[in-house]
Amino acid sequence: MTEKESIQSKQLLSTRRRLLSVDDYVQGVMNGNRAIIAQAITIVESNLPKHMEMAQKVLKELIPYTGKSVRIGFTGVPGAGKSTLIESFGMMLCEQNHRVAVLAVDPSSSVSKGSILGDKTRMEHLSRHPHAYVRPSPSSGTLGGVTRKSRETLLICEAAGYDVIIVETVGVGQSEVTVQSMVDFFLVIMLTGAGDELQGMKKGVMEFADAIFINKADGENKQAAMNAKVEYNRLLHFIQPITEGWETKAFTVSALTGEGVAHIWKVIQKYKQVTSMNGFFGKRRKEQMIDWVHSMIEDQLKARFYGNPSMKKNITKMEGLLLNGHTSPTLAVQQLFNIYDENG
Ligand code: GDP
Fold first, then answer.
1. Is the shortest distance between the CB of 260 and ligand 1 below 6 Å?
2. Which segments of the chain belong to CATH 1.20.5.170?
3. Which ligand 1 atom sits nearest the alpha carbon of residue 168?
4. Measured between alpha carbons, how far is 83 from 89 in angstroms, rounded to an integer?
């Protein structure tokens, strides 16, 4: 930040409670002013109607400047080494003059009010690097709400000139599907040694991975990681790759020693080249945009239906009738919708 920018942002931020003008947000973001980027993301994450309205005005101005980054999803179970690997990968990219933003989608914050991704200071070096911006997960709301916020935050980071956006999530259920639906390339971090690595959820997540990186391939664990790589590659042959024209493969990496970290970027660059040539890169982004709109429609319909005070009463009443054997589930739903339509 230049001295002028610094004075400007201090003046602007001294009135923290007041919103800036649309133009101040837009210019600040476009100039890469970190304090204003943070402010803009704060209004995107806010649930206050006046913030939401402002956020949409700002986003509307910024949209033409978005879309130029590579969006990468990182997932893995807690302890897989996500933050260590993202830090190592991000630092490498910053040193190559890339600008890296790291966002998180943490579904646990909406359930437990705590966070699996952790309140501990993560990615200490990367978050201090002038080319990087690390933003924790929005701290409250449904997964749908967190998703909207993360998608819009991603757009703000792109308009601010970050050319690599990493979206991190924990390897638990729905949040992986969500992150996969907002990135170009989905990277799954695996561990070896657990013995059950090819089962259950892990197998499920392989179906939408663009690459698998087996982390902690160092020291005594190195050989086991190499064996796991062979095994994953064997299994991947039986899985239809999620991306047209791209073969999902497994690799080993060590976030600790750095071995294999440069290869992550090589794989992603290759992926970008292949999918840009066959048109899939743009196709996926268009589909994601359309899916985003539909998932917001679903969220809003749900919120309106359940949020309507007369529906709340009638749902309770209908549940009683259902449990007492006076109606069927289908009839109950039909009647509830009739009531909703009349009140709508
Ligand atoms: P996260 O919960 O997925 O973000 O995992 P962390 O990045 O916090 O890492 C969990 C633990 O694994 C920490 O103690 C790290 O130091 C360790 N770790 C991460 N990557 C590696 C690696 O490549 N090799 C080894 N040996 N340990 C690692």
1. no
2. 3-63
3. 4
4. 10
75 lines ligand 1 (CB under 6 A): no
Find residue 215's DSSP bridge partners: none
- Cα–ligand 1 centroid distance for 247 (angstroms): 27
Length of the chain: 344
Nearest ligand 1 atom to the CA of 215 is: 23
Q: What is the pLDDT of residues 284-330, one digit of tens each?
A: 999 999 998 998 898 888 888 998 888 989 999 999 999 999 999 99
Ligand 1 and 80: CB distance under 6 A? yes
Query: Looking at domain 288-343, which of 3.40.50.12780, 3.40.50.720, 1.10.287.130, 3.10.20.70 is its CATH number?
Result: 1.10.287.130
Any ligand 1 atom below 6 A from CB of 254: yes
Q: What is the pLDDT of residues 251-283, one digit of tens each?
A: 999 999 999 999 999 999 999 999 999 999 999
* Ligand 1 atom 25: residue of nearest CA: 216
Q: Is 79 in the pocket of ligand 1 (CB under 6 A)?
A: yes
Judge if the beta carbon of residue 121 lies within 6 A of ligand 1.
Answer: no
Q: Supply the residue whose CA is at minimum distance from atom 5 of ligand 1.
A: 81
- Do 117 and 136 meet the contact criterion of CB atoms below 8 Å apart? yes
Instruction: Show the tokens assigned to 318.
Output: 């209908």
**CATH 1.10.287.130 residue ranges in the chain?**
288-343
Distance 76 CA to ligand 1 centre (A): 11
The structure's pTM equals 0.86
Report the candidate in 343, 264, 282 with the shortest Cα–Cα distance to residue 308: 343
CATH architecture designation of domain 3-63: Up-down Bundle (1.20)
- How far apart (Å, rounded) are the C-alpha atoms in residues 114 and 102? 20
Q: Residue 259 has what DSSP assignment?
A: T
Per DSSP, helices labelled H in 308-328 are: 309-323
Query: 62 CA distance to ligand 1 centroid (A)?
Result: 36
Q: Which residue carries 């899985």 as its tokens?
A: 239
Q: What is the CATH number of domain 66-277?
A: 3.40.50.300
